[in-house]
Amino acid sequence: MILRVQSEPFDLGAETDTFAKAQSGMGAVVTFTGIVRDLPGAGLDRMEIEHYPGMTEKALEKIASEAMQRWDLGDVLIIHRYGVLRPDDRIMMVATSSRHRADAFAAADFLMDYLKSRAPFWKKEFTSSGAEWVASKDTDEAALDRW
Amino acid sequence: MILRVQSEPFDLGAETDTFAKAQSGMGAVVTFTGIVRDLPGAGLDRMEIEHYPGMTEKALEKIASEAMQRWDLGDVLIIHRYGVLRPDDRIMMVATSSRHRADAFAAADFLMDYLKSRAPFWKKEFTSSGAEWVASKDTDEAALDRW
Amino acid sequence: MDVLYFAWVRERIGIPRETLDTSARTVAELVEELRGREDRYAAAFADLSALRVAVDQDLTDFDASLEGVREVAFFPPMTGG
Amino acid sequence: MDVLYFAWVRERIGIPRETLDTSARTVAELVEELRGREDRYAAAFADLSALRVAVDQDLTDFDASLEGVREVAFFPPMTGG
């Protein structure tokens, strides 16, 4: 498992390529990338992501291990940024590999659902009309019931 | 929609990065990559992929358009190789982008199910014990009922 | 009309494509006609449940009409992805 | 015991962390104690349904025991990914 929490940008192309190259005997690689979206109307100046050092690493480890146990996976990668991000910046990515495609898809989907509401990150959006903490959605919590 | 059928290798990292960069206002990018697996036992020397020029492009266009209609997507990319491939070579990839993650995941999953049994490609595996056409699986056909 | 063969259908018949003059009105009638030609065709078309057919590059059924059709292709179930 | 605050909980209370001597046996008791200290705590803990708590870096419930615990953290629902 490759788990990284960092403020620096990551190279999506290189990470994807390196992850895929490292897989032996795996027929499927799935990646998910989360990108800062501009906000309609007000316009997003920046997003600030706060996290809980120590607990974040523990949570990622737990979520990734759970995925490895539930599905027949080659490996799992999670990279998540914190700090200041601007529109079009990449916030985070996950990658999964498996022999058959269904496992890699399900595991990546699962990782995202759990990262969304079980990894201690909080996003604050700064627009021309002020700053606001992003509220969690009921649908994010409900998504966990799928698993 | 970006649709390519080619015998040359593609650069997974660069394709992923370029696709993600081109997305405006999309918060989510999902990619799937199919890789040639070695075969347990006999050992795979190579795989030869045959396709139906003309119909292949038409089928990819149809499958990608269907995904664009069903989900709220920014864009869809499909690259599929034909010709001689060796273990660890990348056979194909899809990428999808969307504002919210569920659409990008569902669309990528859908594209893979349809490419598997509705795009005119046929794989032949060459091992030390002979050559054999890869048989389609009943589960691949059944997977289409999900959509 | 152009008739195309792919994968093991192509290997059994021995050629990737041919141009035929046929009075067959449906794919099924064309298959019957081909079966009667030579053993290699009979072998390729022995089990229709193992075959798929495309008419003018669209996947269809064996009862599809051949009226105005320029290209028919026979092949096993696809294994893309 | 270290008590940590994140996101708007941190902003309302005005500090990211503090070290407390407490006789509270559960998280709920600790919350009651904090609420009684100052208005900014009362404001931060006004609606517990909007808060989450982690004890020694594991997400838990407000009735969790504090026995042997070194670190408690309060924060809004997480918005990762």
TrEMBL record, chains A, B:
This is Molybdopterin synthase catalytic subunit. Heterotetramer of 2 MoaD subunits and 2 MoaE subunits. Also stable as homodimer. The enzyme changes between these two forms during catalysis. It comes from the Bacteria. One of its GO terms (biological process) is Mo-molybdopterin cofactor biosynthetic process. The gene is moaE. It catalyses: 2 [molybdopterin-synthase sulfur-carrier protein]-C-terminal-Gly-aminoethanethioate + cyclic pyranopterin phosphate + H2O = molybdopterin + 2 [molybdopterin-synthase sulfur-carrier protein]-C-terminal Gly-Gly + 2 H(+). Gene3D superfamilies: Molybdopterin biosynthesis MoaE subunit (3.90.1170.40). Belongs to the MoaE family. Pathway: Cofactor biosynthesis; molybdopterin biosynthesis. Keywords: Molybdenum cofactor biosynthesis, Transferase. It comes from Thalassovita gelatinovora (Thalassobius gelatinovorus). Its EC number is 2.8.1.12. The keyword Protease does not apply. CDD domains: MoaE.
Automatic annotation (TrEMBL), chains C, D:
The lineage of its organism: Bacteria, Pseudomonadati, Pseudomonadota, Alphaproteobacteria, Rhodobacterales. It comes from the Bacteria. Pfam families: ThiS. SUPFAM superfamilies: MoaD/ThiS. Signal peptide: none annotated. CDD domains: Ubl_MoaD. InterPro entries: Beta-grasp_dom_sf, Mopterin_synth/thiamin_S_b, ThiS/MoaD-like. This is Sulfur carrier protein MoaD.
